[in-house]
Design brief:
By secondary structure, the chain is mainly α. The protein contains 4 helices and no strands. Helix 3 runs antiparallel to helix 4. The protein is elongated.
Length: about 100
């Protein structure tokens, strides 16, 4: 086969580049780190001011449940499923508490 034909067929195959995946994963990890730092900072501020943090906790637990759910879909470990259900329950409970406090 001709070299140019092979290169052209690879370009059209839309194969995911490992370098792009690595960069995406690294950016996602850094974004998650900043998000968690901001959440902790806001929770500490709310604690010092005597403000309820139910809304922040609902967001945190919802985010955690989505991560655990996707881990469960990939690895099929029961601990991930249990963590998913527990995080979902915690998210709904905190959301309900937030609505009850602000209603």
């Amino acid at each position: 086969m001709d070299r140019n034909v092979i290169l052209e067929s690879n370009k059209q195959a839309r194969i995911r580049d490992e370098g792009t995946e690595f960069a995406d994963n690294r950016a996602r990890r850094k974004g998650e780190f900043v998000l968690m730092c901001l959440m902790v900072l806001l929770m500490v501020y709310n604690l010092l001011k005597g403000i309820q943090s139910d809304d922040l906790m609902a967001v945190f637990w919802a985010y955690t449940s989505v991560i655990c759910l996707h881990k469960y879909k990939i690895y099929r470990q029961k601990t991930d499923l249990v963590a998913t259900v527990a995080a979902m329950v915690a998210a709904f409970a905190n959301l309900l508490l937030y609505f009850l406090h602000t209603w």
